[in-house]
Amino acid sequence: MYDQTRAQQPADRSPGLAGRRTPGPEPLLPAEDRDRIVRRLGHAVNTFADAPDEALEEAEGAFDEATEALVNALAERRRVLRAGWQDQDPEAQSAELRLALREYREITGRLLRA
Question: Which of 73, 67, 71 is nearest to 28 (CA)?
């Protein structure tokens, strides 16, 4: 039976996640990837006055890199989520399905708020 109260709890509050999650949402990209992209974008901003065309190309490259990294990270997150609930023992399946639903909801919500 569907438990609306449990389904509306934040993902970091579910009982079975204590050892599996950290407070707050996990970053979608690793810190080193984010830092590299931010540096590229900062370089573009800092060189704009002297070389606007090159700066815009650098900014576009940073955007493309961020987009590609995000698409890859989301595909991997989807793969891991799907593996977590597919082919589960019938008793564990309900809990895994609920966990997967919360994760999909959290990630999708973050994408829509961005």
Answer: 73
pTM: 0.67
**Residues recorded for the chain:** 114
Which helix (DSSP H) or strand (DSSP E) does residue 54 occupy? helix 52-85
- DSSP state for residue 3 in the 8-state scheme: -
> Each residue of 58-102: pLDDT tens digit?
999 999 999 999 999 999 999 988 887 777 776 667 777 888 889
Q: In a 10 Å sphere around its CB, with 0-12 CB exposed, 13-18 middle and 19+ buried, how is residue 103 labelled?
A: buried
Structure tokens, 61: 């490259």
**86 in helix, strand or coil?**
coil
